[in-house]
Design a protein that fits this description.
6-stranded mixed beta sheet, transmembrane helix, mainly beta, binds copper (II) ion, oxidoreductase, 537 residues, EC 1.16.3.4, binds CU-O-CU linkage
């Protein structure tokens, strides 16, 4: 009964004329019982757009034969531009959300799943309470209300579950989707649009004979991170994209729990990168191959004009070596056997992410195009941060990355809710000089568990810039600069730190106070404790 719900909510919001007027815009499904205390629609927030996301158990058809049980988010626009949400009924992926910089959005997250959960807007600069910290997880039947303004520049962001100890499992089950932001600067450029602007999320999974997702969660899997034998693009196996003879903008997201891809076109065409995590680069960068760690995004420009109809191109992932100093843990996790095309038979001896080449996706030229776009020489202007901008130019905040016994640690610590140490307090409206040091800390014991692994490090809040990437020199003293295979330009929110490396970043902490997380985006590592909060105040 809508009226009862309204009355309840009025009581809840503090009755009065103002509340009555404001409530008439709230949807009827909300009531005091199902709405999460601490997050309710606020009366002074006037959204341009209102969205409802519902997480529930669903069955989708991924393969021929039995459908697959997944955790799926379905979206609906309650108020405003209906094109802001695109549901993909045939996959487990959460809907793609498209918003414009400056828009104010209210998102109702309704949890109909058999577990508490919460969503985090990866890469977006939102208030701490809207950031999906695990402490805000809501139970089955509850609704969390997010309200924020899009402050980010145009870019390919995403969102996913961020549940305490369960992020890996929840994302694996399906709880992730694109969050694409546009802005005026980007719209003024002549970039491919509509069907020529293609978001592509790359993930790996394992399935049993009944087509059901397999995730064993065993000890080795947790140490190395989950590595699946089946590659899925946009939730589909053996993904093939039909294209016209023209330029495309492809937005690549590594939505895998822990697999790192090294992407290259099979015909030797170099990869032209136009954007990274936080949007467009100043100008396109050309690379022979592209390393894409979990949670990272790269937008690439691919021009098929001049290609014959029927031409097929394959985007492959090349053999990936963790590099470093060869002191890996020796279990390996190559792709073995597997189903579908392009799987391999190798053992990843010695390197946790090694594997032979495999196919990620195929592109097939099917149609002559009547239009084309030319890659602009200049895409954007990015103000470069410098050490002089930092509040701590001479004393970087050092974060050591280590794995010991059954834990993955940051500065020797494991995640604990509301456990802020002195070195985790950051003054608001400052830029911080920070370094991630993956130089074999906690190697004590060596053996199988004393390993050093690549760690894709992610910070919540604003995007940062990478100042330098160094590797510990052979003598073990000092670092030398390296850059091979990596693209560290532009705005980033996730940076891959290889074994033996030290990566220095400049990270702004503006506007919002409260808890903002930093963690490894190898989701198994994250759940094993490789995550901490920063208190911005
Ligand atoms: Cu994409 Cu804290 O995560
Ligand atoms: Cu890690």
């Amino acid at each position: 009964n809508v009226n009862i719900q309204r009355r309840k909510l009025l009581k809840f919001a503090g009755a009065g004329a103002v509340a009555t007027a404001a409530f008439s815009t709230f949807p009827g499904f909300l009531n005091a019982k199902t709405m999460r205390v601490g997050s309710r629609p606020s009366l002074d927030f006037n959204p341009d757009i209102e969205i409802r996301l519902t997480g529930e158990v669903k069955y989708v058809s991924i393969f021929k034969g039995p459908t697959t049980r997944v955790w799926k988010v379905t979206g609906e626009v309650l108020k405003g531009d209906k094109t802001a949400i695109t549901n993909d009924k045939e996959s487990y992926l959460a809907p793609t959300i498209r918003l414009h910089k400056g828009q104010k959005v209210r998102i109702y997250l309704k949890n109909e799943l058999p577990s508490a959960t919460i969503l985090h807007w990866h890469g977006l600069h939102v208030p701490a309470k809207m950031d999906g910290n695990p402490m805000y997880a809501i139970d089955n039947g509850e609704t969390f209300v997010y309200e924020f303004e899009i402050l980010n520049r145009a870019g390919t962001y995403w969102y996913h579950a961020h549940t305490h100890n369960l992020t890996a499992k929840h994302v694996y089950s399906g709880l992730a989707g694109f969050f694409i932001v546009s802005d005026d600067e980007e719209q003024a450029l002549k970039l491919p649009r509509g069907e020529f602007d293609v978001p592509l999320v790359i993930q790996d999974r394992n399935f049993d004979q009944q087509n059901q997702l397999k995730y064993d969660g065993g000890m080795m899997q947790r140490m190395h991170g989950f590595l699946g034998e089946q590659i899925l693009v946009n939730g589909r196996p053996e993904f093939k994209l039909p294209v016209e003879t023209r330029a495309y903008r492809m937005r690549l997201l590594n939505g895998s729990n822990s697999r790192i891809y090294k992407l290259a076109w099979d015909d030797g065409t170099p990869i032209k990168v136009i954007a990274t995590d936080g949007g467009l680069l100043e100008r396109a960068e050309t690379l022979p191959y592209l390393t894409l760690a979990p949670a990272e995004r790269r937008e690439i420009w691919v021009d098929f004009s001049g290609k014959e109809i029927g031409t097929e191109l394959t985007l492959r992932s090349l053999e990936f070596s963790s590099g470093g100093m060869g002191m890996m843990g020796g279990m390996g996790g190559g792709m073995r056997g597997g189903r579908g095309g392009g799987m391999m038979g190798g053992m990843g001896g010695g390197q946790s992410h090694a594997g032979e080449e495999f196919t990620v996706l195929k592109v097939r030229v099917t149609k002559k195009s009547s239009s084309n776009d030319v890659l602009p020489k200049r895409l954007s202007k990015i103000p470069a941060l410098s050490v002089a901008d930092a509040e701590n130019p001479h004393s970087p905040r050092r974060i050591t990355l280590s794995m010991r016994h059954m834990s993955a640690l940051l500065n020797g610590r494991s995640y604990k809710m509301n456990d802020i140490r002195q070195d985790e307090v950051v003054p608001v409206n400052t830029v911080q000089l920070m370094e991630f040091d993956n130089g074999f800390h906690g190697m004590g014991g060596m053996g199988m568990m004393g390993m050093s692994m690549p760690h894709p490090m992610h910070l919540h809040g604003e995007q940062f810039q990478v100042l330098k990437r160094e590797v510990r020199s052979k003598s073990g003293k000092g670092y030398t600069s390296v850059s091979e295979g990596f693209l560290d330009k532009g705005w980033k929110d996730t940076v891959l730190v290889m074994p033996g490396e030290k990566v220095t970043i400049l990270k702004p902490f503006n506007d919002y106070t409260g808890l903002f997380m930093y963690h490894c985006h190898n989701l198994e590592h994250e759940d094993m404790g490789m995550m901490r909060d920063l208190l911005v105040k």
